[in-house]
Amino acid sequence: MDSILVRGNGALSGQIPIAGAKNACLTLMPATLLSEEPVTLTNAPRLSDISTMRQLLQSFGAEISVLNKGLVIAMSSHGLDNWRADYDIVRKMRASNLVLGPLLARFGQAIVSLPGGCAIGARPMDLHITALEALGAEIELKEGYLHAKAPLNGLKGGTHRLRFASVGATENFLLAACLAKGTSVLENAAREPEIVDLVSCLRKMGAQIEGEGSSRIVIEGVDRLHGATHSVLVDRIELGTYMLAPAIAGGEVELLGGRMSLLGSFCEKLAKTGVEINETEAGLRVSNTKGRVKAVDVKTEVFPGFPTDLQAQMMALMCTAEGVCHLEETIFENRFMHAPELIRMGASIDVKGGTATVTGKPQLKGAPVMATDLRASVSLVLAGLAAQGETVVSRVYHLDRGYEFIEEKLKAVGADVERIKGS
Ligand code: UD1
Predict the structure, then answer these.
(1) pLDDT in tens, 86-137
(2) Which of 126, 216, 251, 417 makes an SS bond possible with 12, Cβ 3.0 to 4.6 Å?
(3) Rg of the Cα trace of the chain?
């Protein structure tokens, strides 16, 4: 298994291009199951999670070509002949559960293994199940697989209020309701930018949807969807992660393709630490020329609140901030696995329940560390940028799930980062 070696190397300077959003692409790909006509996604990220989704769709009979060095994914779902998503693929990635809605809508049935992915909490499926039941689906859990069936003449429009504004459950409901008969309404829907991007693509395919980006989405079912070409939204989590690199190491970096509106309250929080953020023609410029930033309290929330997917990286910044900060995680119950690793690097962190109290230290020290989930992994790389000496982050397969060419992107702004093969 590869490791990443990081040596603290002072201030960063230069530009980092931001890729297409992993979490948008992972819902756009299953959307293509809804049409018999070809759908092409451009600006796709080059990540192992995207390859896993490709394998999953191919296992249903989809024909997929990857073009232009992986940036373009051309998909055709006309010859589908299987509606079972096996554990072997699903266990690698929780987003596999997003095939449930489209398979149900297209075949009237689906058998989908319970999902895997990062070990950041219970991550149940009840919200997905009750949302799809509101469209007439019957879903049973048998031996680790969800067995879903639509009524004989297909899914029918329904109204449903989510108990929690789950991103995945909103996506599954939307994907299924596009082809259901009649009108469907989702209340307390998730408002994340990835939902808006999914609706933008579905609309190009002929879906009739209103209200995306708000808490109430209305879908008028249509008989069929057609082909389309869609450019994947910019990855707000990759953007936020690389905005934190100059915040931690010092310097000035321009994030190409970045926009503040993608990040909700994250930009306000980062600005409060003393980091400067400016919109440019090409993206966002982030600079920290003052040294240690100020500690700020953070609470993760649904969009536009502070994203849970940037909590670990923000903790890395807080480790060397001036003052004490409280980081409260409200989305996942087990998402502080990076804390003991940051402590190995000299950080002062006290975790009690869903809150981590971080007392900033002037300097972290490099150490061998091990990441246990995707965002935790990258938080350790970020911490290494500002640490004295060498940090070796092992088990980087998690990183490859979510950050394309991470060493190249960081090296381009002056970081001393290299991949050690097979250790
Ligand atoms: C979550 C993030 C999303 C991020 C994605 C990938 C939020 C609100 N969602 O989406 O921004 O891109 O991870 O890292 O920040 N839950 C249930 N039952 C369910 C489904 C979820 O109780 O059926 C609970 C989970 O236990 C957890 C929360 O809802 O507490 C997670 O929210 P959800 O949005 O569903 O998670 P993801 O779709 O994975």
Answers:
(1) 999 998 888 999 999 999 999 999 999 987 544 545 568 999 999 999 999 9
(2) 251
(3) 21
Interval 5-30: pLDDT, tens:
999 988 999 999 999 999 999 999 99
- For residue 374, the ligand 1 atom closest to its alpha carbon is 14
Q: Which two tokens stand for residue 239?
A: 């953007």
According to DSSP, residue 348 is labeled E
* Residues 299 and 306: beta-carbon distance below 8 Å: yes
pTM: 0.96
State if residue 127 touches ligand 1 by the CB under 6 angstroms criterion.
Answer: yes
Distance separating alpha carbons of residues 101 and 81, to the nearest angstrom: 16
3-19+234-420 with 22-231: one CATH topology? yes
- Which segments of 257-339 are extended strands (E)? 276-279, 283-288, 298-299, 324-328
Q: In the chain, what are the domain boundaries?
A: 3-19+234-420, 22-231
Angle subtended at Cα 265 by Cα 210 and Cα 387, rounded to the nearest 5 degrees: 135
Beta-bridge partner residues of 394: 370
Are the C-beta atoms of 85 and 111 separated by less than 8 Å? yes
Q: Give the Å distance between the CA of 332 and the centre of ligand 1.
A: 8
Ligand 1, atom 26, lies closest to the CA of 123
With vertex at residue 110, the alpha carbon angle to CA 104 and CA 111, rounded to the nearest 5 degrees, is 155
Catalytic positions are 118
Structure tokens at 98: 């997003």
List, edge to edge, every strand of the sheet that includes 138-142. 84-85, 109-113, 145-149, 138-142
Q: Would the CB of 166 count as within 6 Å of ligand 1?
A: yes
CATH 1.25.40.390 fits 22-231, yes or no: no
Is residue 273 within 8 Å of 297, Cβ to Cβ?
no
For domain 3-19+234-420, say whether CATH 3.40.640.10 is its number: no
Q: Are 135 and 184 in contact (CB under 8 A)?
A: yes
